[in-house]
Design brief:
Layout lengths: L7 H13 L7 H16 L9 H15 L6 E3 L2 E3 L1 H12 L3
Antiparallel strand pairs: 1-2
């Protein structure tokens, strides 16, 4: 899925921020970068143990911070995730009872 040496997810999340901020066009390659970032976040199997959970949760947290001021949500195949939903998922992975 993802390794510490793979910078593509981080780069795509940063490109998605540019789209969300309307700094770049929301079509073409920029739209593809945003779609790839969102696909990564939507495809994380949060019910299972995953490799590099720290990296995945960090990426999810950062993206939730980009969505929040825009009052935007993430449309996944299983439903819509708000920035607070993403933050709750991150907290559930990091904070163990």
């Amino acid at each position: 899925m993802f390794s510490w040496d793979d910078k593509y997810v981080g780069a795509q999340i940063l490109a998605a921020k540019l789209v969300l901020d309307a700094t770049v066009e929301s079509s073409g390659i920029w739209a593809q970068y945003k779609a790839n970032a969102e696909q990564f976040i939507c495809s994380c199997p949060w019910g299972n143990i995953i490799i590099n959970v720290s990296t995945a949760t960090f990426a999810m947290f950062i993206y939730s911070q980009y969505l929040s001021p825009k009052q935007a949500s993430l449309q996944c195949s299983d439903g819509v995730l708000s920035p607070s939903d993403l933050t709750s998922l991150v907290q559930a992975q990091v904070i163990q009872p």
